[in-house]
Amino acid sequence: MYKDKDPRAELFAAGAKPPATGLIAKEQLALFYASDPQATGPGWKSWYHRGNNFVLAYSQTEPGAVLSREGQPDEYVLYLPDAGPGAVVEWGGETVEIPGQSIAFIPAGDSRVTLGGGGQVTRLFTIRSRDLAGAASNADAYDQHRHHIPAFAPWPDPVGGWKVRHYALDVPDAPGRFGRIFRCTTFMVNVFRPQVGPRDTTKLSPHHHDDFEQCSLTLRGDFVHHLRWPWTVDMADWREDLTITVGSPSSLIIPPPVIHTTRSVGAGENDLVDIFCPPRIDFSQKDGWVLNADDYPMPNG
């Protein structure tokens, strides 16, 4: 069904198998624009939304605001979607300037992020950041163990050792490459080119994942998420189809093996980012898809 339409087509075909029975989890939705933040500080306010393996921290900031972490247990993501001054990151005795419209990976330990121009900031942490997981708006959503999602395990250390690494988002498209994909030891982030106007409804891409969640973060515009729970041999797994209409900013975490596709519906610019924790093996195996693959190796085997 994806021939000549979607560069993921052969991935879907290769991974096709009957859906597993058992726990079929509920989707997790956070409408940041329609809810109060979970935390505030001088010049910033933050919303926390958790998945099985991760916590998304979305923040609205003023110029000069500081977002810091003490004793951070593992590498985390700093995503700066807006053009402008960006941020200054202090870690390990070093100070690194991160331009706007960049993604950065910050190692474990103490770190301090100072926002030069303010604006939207997204950080991504693994579930090992238990303080943030406990502060999430859906903190209790994973009290029932997701036995069909493997426990989080980090990928190999980066080439050349630990340091703050950052990459520009302004990367030209390439034939056969899907999105703009970056990974570190803990996350994979796929930054889509903003869609102007509604998506062509004759070119959607419904698909599912067997054993990992997908987090779709919307930062501008309006979207409709379509979700369909597959029929397994156990009728207790069955659910009604869902159509979820969202504005921005918002976050939807889609559980496996739910069939899903998303379409932009806003008249202006619609900005979507897909997030996976840990990185995806299938995307990583596609030559040229991960733009910083030379810095972050795949697991052996």
What is the topological layout?
Blueprint: H1 9-14, E1 28-31, E2 39-41, E3 44-50, E4 54-61, E5 66-72, E6 76-80, E7 87-91, E8 94-98, E9 102-106, E10 109-115, E11 119-126, H2 130-135, E12 165-168, E13 180-183, E14 188-191, E15 195-196, E16 214-220, E17 223-228, E18 242-246, E19 250-254, E20 259-264, E21 269-276, H3 281-284
Antiparallel strand pairs: 1-19, 2-3, 3-4, 4-11, 5-10, 6-9, 6-11, 7-8, 7-10, 9-12, 13-14, 14-21, 15-21, 16-19, 16-21, 17-18, 17-20
Plain-language structure description:
There is one protein chain. The chain has 301 residues and is mainly beta. The chain has one domain: Jelly Rolls, CATH 2.60.120.10. Strands 1, 13, 14, 15, 16, 19 and 21 form a 7-stranded antiparallel β-sheet that branches. It has a 7-stranded antiparallel β-sheet with strand order 2-3-4-11-6-9-12. It has a 4-stranded antiparallel β-sheet with strand order 5-10-7-8, with no helix packed on it. A hairpin with a 2-residue loop joins strand 2 and strand 3. The longest helix is centred in the first third of the chain and has 6 residues.
